[in-house]
Amino acid sequence: MVRRRISRVARRPARVPTFLSRAALCRLADITDRQLRVWEEEELIAPVRIIELEGNREPLYTRKALERVRLIRTLAEELEINLPGIEVILNLLERLAG
Fold first, then answer.
1. Which domains does the chain possess?
2. pLDDT tens for residues 27-75?
3. In what order do the strands lie in the sheet with 20-21?
4. 3-class secondary structure, 30
5. Farthest-apart Cα atoms in the chain, separation
6. Strands 56-61 and 49-53
């Protein structure tokens, strides 16, 4: 008689989105609040949500936004690419991924 092994696949719990505050995003990406504001004005990055917190509007970002900010920082600081060039690169990467 042949025994079959039944493998039990561990089920992952449903992924709960993790949101980062503006301060947390800046700290984790090692950028200043001013840099983030400039990149938002240039529409290179955008918050996924804006919540009201104690009368103030607080933008929230995802981990994907954190990766994007790190890429923008690398392109700007290490490769010395200007903002229009970064926009072109990001658009090309999105087209290749999409």
1. 20-97 (1.10.1660.10)
2. 999 999 999 999 999 999 999 999 998 899 999 999 999 999 999 999 9
3. 20-21, 56-61, 49-53
4. coil
5. 71
6. antiparallel
